[in-house]
Design a protein that fits this description.
By secondary structure, this protein is an alpha+beta fold. The protein is built from eight helices and eleven strands. The radius of gyration is 31 Å and the shape is elongated. The termini are far apart.
Length: 290
Amino acid sequence: MLVVAGVVHGPCVLSGASVRRTVTDVCAVFHFRPLVDTPPQYIQVADGGQAPRRVDGAGTPCTVLAVRRVDPDLIPADEAERLEAIRRYDILDAPPDGAFDRITALAARLFQVPIAIVSIVDEDRIWFKSHHGLAVEEISRDRGLCASAILQDGPWVINDAARDPRALTNPLVAGEFGLKFYAGVPLQTADGHNLGTICLLDFEPRELTADETDTLEDLAGMVLSELELRLASRRAVAEAHERAELKDAFMAMVSHELRTPATIIYAATQMLAGDSTLLRNPRARELFPD
């Protein structure tokens, strides 16, 4: 699946010269500069001064992400702490997870929408932890959808994106994808950082009732619970390993301490046994009668 600037361009397998031709052609449309010296097994696309993202695409269907500078208005005040929280959960680029996939499938069924997503808003991209009904793993951090939703304390709803100025500039709305409806609830941690969203997408305008909004917020809570469960599990495993290492170190120390006195006593015994003067001492004979 080829995605540039958030616009889906269909499934593709890119390698060798076709990589360079495809990237060059598409980037010309979006005014991005491809790196023509890219090895065949990788694709790198970047604009003027920003570091490129490397995407593995060797002989397999892949996603090309054109990296752009993020609009400063989309960066929350707690951005550094928010990104640190994302790293703490260690979720980015993780393999598919059935628990999250069940939540997005349930959301699509409950709300009767074709697409439901659990997204994580990274530094310069929006990565999809689960994407029911959409064969794309990440898009650029553009205004109007998830990137705007994480700036809110509550739901972010776009009833008709084609008529809503908040979303008109988003490539998924303005481009061929033709998105019309978006509803997202921030995935907010206990310390108040919005990691991403659980969101619903549709190609037809619609509205979200108060009850439906409550349900979507409950689903967001389920996603957070899953994230917390995995974090707690990793911490428990790490603590168990640490305890095991401490136990091994303690046992090694105790074993050394137990061996050392025995060695000293044995050496003293041998010394005494070879010294008849010492053995004539009554106390020495009591300690070493033989």
